[in-house]
Amino acid sequence: MIPRSIKISGFLSYQEDVEIDFTSIHVACITGQNGAGKSAMLDAMTWALFGEARKNDESVINDSTHNRKAEVTFEFEYEKSIYKIIRTREQGKSSTVEFQIWDEMADHWRVITERSVSLTNKLICNTLHLDYRTFINVSFFLQGRADQFTKQNPTERKEVLGSILNLDQWNDFQLKTVEKRKDRSNRLEVVLSLLEQIESELSEEDQRKKLLDQLTEALAAAEVRTNVRQEAWQNAKNTEQLIFSQQDLLKKTDSQLQTLSIQMDADRKKLAIRLDESARFQENLKNEAQIEEKIIQLKQAQTEFASWNDKQVIFFELERSKNELLSKIRQEQARLSQEQKTLRQDYELVQKAQQSIAQEQQRESELRKEIESLERETTAREEITAALKMLMEDIQGKKAECLRMKNRMTEIKNQQNNLREAVGAPCPFCGTDLNEEHCQKYLAQLQDEGQTLGNAYRSLKSELDKLDQQKQSYENTIAQMTQISQRILTLEKECAPISARIVNDQSIVSRWQQIGSKRFEQINDWLSKEQFCLEERKLLEEISDKITTLQYDASAHERCRNRVGELQSIDTQYKALLKAKAALEPLKREIEDLSNRIAENEQKRRELEAALLDQKESLNKLTALKADSIEAKKQFDAAQMEENTLRARRGAAEQSVAALESLKQKKAVLQLEKAELNQLIGRLKVLEKAFSKNGIPALLIEQALPEIEDSANEILRNLTDDKMSIQLNTLRDYKDKTRDIKKETLDIIISDGFGTRDYELYSGGEAFRVNFAIRLALSKLLAKRAGARLQMLVIDEGFGSQDAEGREKLIETITAIQDSFEKILVITHLDELKDAFPSRIEVEKNVNGSQVKVIV
């Protein structure tokens, strides 16, 4: 991880917005007085990254911030990607965090925040592959926590190393392996349970086969019983069927006998009717000659009547055509008469129009002459109007001149009065004192001017009077001309409808002369000479000739109709005669047939009565032999049910025996699966142990410890001139000496050339050098971690515990390792160390909170 920038607002001592750009910094010291806000800057980083700092509650909010909100925006580069974290905490509310990544293709920030703060914090830790504890143990040497790693117990040290070496993945592997082993173990338990059930069923093989044999024998016996009882039931059913058949035959014979009796009675009645009809027909044949003579007369009358009917049809058709032609002729005559009447009315209108035209033309001529005369009288109106306008202008000018003269005369009169009263006073004209002579002189001048103006005024007034008279004359003339113009308009209005009436009357006369006159003469000629409907008149004459030739007589037709009516009754008698002659011979044959059939049916009746007696005797014999079929059916059903029950039981037994073969096959498959599961579970247990903290992770720590130890000793020897070194041991003896095995641990053994001592027995400066060496070695390891390098180092204080030589050694060590890190930040309040670093971040605190200045 490489920090790029941080923006702090309202966080701890940072009241206002402060932004720090780290892009141009490689190694820098952060300087400032105690309490200026140096450590708060680092707290802002850890708070932004993990939501943790030296204070994690609302106390991180600066009390002087008006909006009562702390906000830190931290931008950093990690494994060639750029990230931004914005963490906020408002007073009285929970903190919020937003996680973003720079999208180079889209050229903007893309939000990757999870749905909750805790999940977002977890995503940040997973992205960095380390948590807050590892971060402050390795990369951050926080103030007062230089011995953070050294004072932890061995287990906690291992956890820190595990985080540095990214050993958490082995814990994930172990959890997945445990889950898979449990799943396979559960399956093994199921397989064992199934095998136990199969073994239990296979142990019943002999018992199941014995039961199958017993059921087979019982079923054979049941089948025999069922067949016997079925035969008995069938015999009882057959006897019942014979009885039913005999009863049906008896009913049928009895029914035939009754039907035959009914038929014989009907034949006897019918024979009596036919004998009566035969007697009546014989009676009708006695008047045969008289009836045939009258029939001949009837046919002659009918022939004549048919002839009259044909003539009547033709006569009516000719009369209809005749009436239609007459109707057409009458209609045409009425139409022509109406048109003649209309034309006569038009002619009368034309005569009136001709008279009106002469009168209207005379009146129009009179009006036109009057209009022309009046127009001549108004020709000078424009000249008189122009003259009046000029006269008015002249009058106005002269009136203005009269008014001016009158005002001047009034003014002269006032001046004369003033002069008379002003004797001895200064002259208003020359300024000298006025005397009587001087006053008279001016009065005489004013008198002359007044007389001259008066004469001119009176002359002009006289001229104005003449002009007023001339003006009145002009105005009177114009008024008369206006009246004349109004008269002209009135005459033109009167003339317009006269002209329209003349045009209309002329149109009527012209239309009559062109069309109406000729049509009127034509219609008069047609009507007087009957020269219309000539074709219809010709057809009418032809139809009249046909009617005469037809010679239809309605009276003769009526007499013939009456004669036919009188003879019509004989037709009925003749038809009855013909019917009697036609029916008499078949009637004789029918009487003979009926007599023969009655005799035959009498013989059949006697035979049916004898058969009926025989059938009753047979039915009585069958009834005596009848068995109880219902009881036989019950016994058959019981036997059949027993057979079915045994057959079902035998089928189940057969399936039970057959299932054993399937179970044997399933047993073999399950035993094979059991062996495979046992083998797999054994392997998974080995993997569980390998993935546990005492397995591969322990080996990886064992492999990493020499590197850490060598790196720490190299730094420590440089800091102490080869006087101190450390050793990292992973095994030690138990307090119980009887135990052969050793206890796993992670102990730090410190040597100073005089032997080994406990960490607590070293001075502050010596302890800091040990802590510094170990922590720096861990940071270097973390900076080289593949796929998740943390390429920054922060050292907060520690120089105060060193003498000048120790401080120099620390600076040399930092300079020596600077190529292993992209960013190294060292916090100090010692002024003599400011120039020891190429870049400097100065922190000051004033009334606006902590302020930062970067010096590169």
TrEMBL record:
<keyword id="KW-0269">Exonuclease</keyword>
<keyword id="KW-0540">Nuclease</keyword>
<dbReference type="GO" id="GO:0004527">
    <property type="term" value="F:exonuclease activity"/>
</dbReference>
<comment type="similarity">
    <text>Belongs to the SMC family. SbcC subfamily.</text>
</comment>
<dbReference type="InterPro" id="IPR027417">
    <property type="entry name" value="P-loop_NTPase"/>
</dbReference>
<dbReference type="GO" id="GO:0006302">
    <property type="term" value="P:double-strand break repair"/>
</dbReference>
<dbReference type="Pfam" id="PF13558">
    <property type="entry name" value="SbcC_Walker_B"/>
</dbReference>
<keyword id="KW-0175">Coiled coil</keyword>
<feature type="coiled-coil region">
    <location>
        <begin position="282"/>
        <end position="494"/>
    </location>
</feature>
<dbReference type="Pfam" id="PF13476">
    <property type="entry name" value="AAA_23"/>
</dbReference>
<protein>
    <recommendedName>
        <fullName>Nuclease SbcCD subunit C</fullName>
    </recommendedName>
</protein>
<feature type="domain" description="Rad50/SbcC-type AAA">
    <location>
        <begin position="5"/>
        <end position="248"/>
    </location>
</feature>
<feature type="coiled-coil region">
    <location>
        <begin position="653"/>
        <end position="690"/>
    </location>
</feature>
<dbReference type="GO" id="GO:0016887">
    <property type="term" value="F:ATP hydrolysis activity"/>
</dbReference>
<feature type="coiled-coil region">
    <location>
        <begin position="188"/>
        <end position="215"/>
    </location>
</feature>
<keyword id="KW-0378">Hydrolase</keyword>
<feature type="coiled-coil region">
    <location>
        <begin position="577"/>
        <end position="625"/>
    </location>
</feature>
<dbReference type="InterPro" id="IPR038729">
    <property type="entry name" value="Rad50/SbcC_AAA"/>
</dbReference>
<comment type="subunit">
    <text>Heterodimer of SbcC and SbcD.</text>
</comment>
